[in-house]
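Most newcomers find our protein records easier to grasp once they have seen one. Read left to right, the backbone structure tokens trace the chain's path through space. Once this layout is familiar, the rest of the handout is easier to follow. The record below serves as our worked example for the rest of this section:


***
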Amino acid sequence: MSKLEFTHVFPLSVRWGDADVYGHINNVEFVRYVESGRVAYCEEVMGLNLKVGMESGWVLADMHCTYLQQVHYPAMLEVHTRISKLGNKSATVLADIYCKGEEEPVLTSRGVMVWFDMKRQQSAPVPEQIKTKVVSYEKSVEDLTKS
């Protein structure tokens, strides 16, 4: 994918402590960077107020990352995030991380989020207002009616 296919950008500054003994940013930090982009998307696009004690919300069910380039401190990154597929109970979220000003990603990610009822401890239908916000924000969303 290219940057142009993404709808949400979250800027992020690499911290000194994100580097490992090899001098590059540790792979676990990249998972946190993707998480930061995903959380910003949920708050800014979906209008979710993420907090302890929520009755329902997204939980991450699956995530795959492909590491393409090393990153060293200092660096400014951009986490590009979008929802590519939205079903009855789940959404596919894509994220690419770029060094600011670069055109090739340093990481690509694909995850699946499930809407979850915290009280019942089970998946639940994605609320219509969330679907509406995502569909109106994204350039295209696949499989809106499939679960």
The chain has two helices and six strands.
